[in-house]
Amino acid sequence: MAGDNPDSNLIYLHGDLDLKIIEARCLPNMDLVSERLRRCLAPFDLCRKPCTSSTRGNHHHHRKIITSDPYVTVCLAGARVARTRIISNSQNPVWEEHFKIPLAHPVSQVEFEVKDNDVFGADLIGIAILPAKRIASGELIDEWFPVIGSNGKPPKPDTAIRLQMTFIPCQQNPFT
Hints:
Layout: E1 11-25, H1 32-41, E2 70-76, E3 79-83, E4 94-107, E5 109-116, E6 123-131, H2 132-136, E7 141-146, E8 160-169
Antiparallel strand pairs: 1-4, 1-8, 2-3, 2-5, 5-6, 7-8
């Protein structure tokens, strides 16, 4: 379709993006596959801690709930411009991370990739997309954005990421 051409929405974002990645909610449990693999290997003792004098005789096994280890990357026109820390075992992570990102990119949208850190590499949970036109307006944006999986739907109902940002064009920056 002609209206779907991303180049028709290109905007040159030249300035500073004041971004806060606050939190996410209702993330799916992406570590189920890793946990199942660990259980399959358990009879072969490949994933068990070595027995030490302090653990000998202690046969109480507490099941630890394994969930996702999420983090967020911020991408513009294929360039990763920011990344949060990993929050271990959380389906509702709180990052509260602040970034000041200098931009000089022709983009149609900004992508916030929510990923799960895993032993076998990162798995994409989903992406929240914000149109560049909205960012360029300079308005304060503080809201929840839906996270959409690779199938075009949210991985779970109400999966979302909370972001806060303001774009300051270089013409308005007193230090340029």
